Fold this protein.
Amino acid sequence: MIKAILFDMVGALLFKKKGYIPKTKAELNAEKIEKLYNHVDDKKLLADIKSKLELSDKEIKRALARIPEKYEKFEEFWSLLPALKKRYKLAVINNGNSLANRYWRKKFDFSIFDEFIVSAKIGIKKPDPRIYLFVCKKLKVKPEECLFLDDRKENIIAAKKLRMKTLWSKSKKSLLSYF
């Protein structure tokens, strides 16, 4: 029996705005920073931003604030969350840094979720099985009591190995068809 639903952030709950094109220097820098995102360590990411992109602290702050601006909620799906919340525990597992986390939270209200896990804060990222187990422990559920939604196949495979139910969100339509 499913007791919790675990969501990837970008590709399940949020999608890039159609036709988005960075226009300002801060938006262009945000794009460059996002390409360096695959870190589990905020200090290393910050060092890479400074050394590889040669941005000042002010430029970094402006760029980090712009990152969430190119995304939008998948409104049809978010409208289902209150009904899901009545039946299930809800959590977000985001492979990301905590540098931009406050800007994500400022733009998008994640308060309906019981947990919001940022990989850089705990030093583990998907598809490492430990991140799924960490969330299960926080929610006090077993992996087999979870449904996990993600747009990356490798993350789905890892969750399946833990006996989680999974939904590979290849598109918005695939998400809605499940619920």
Notes: The CA atoms of residues 77 and 173 lie 10 Å apart. The mean pLDDT is 92. The radius of gyration is 16 Å.
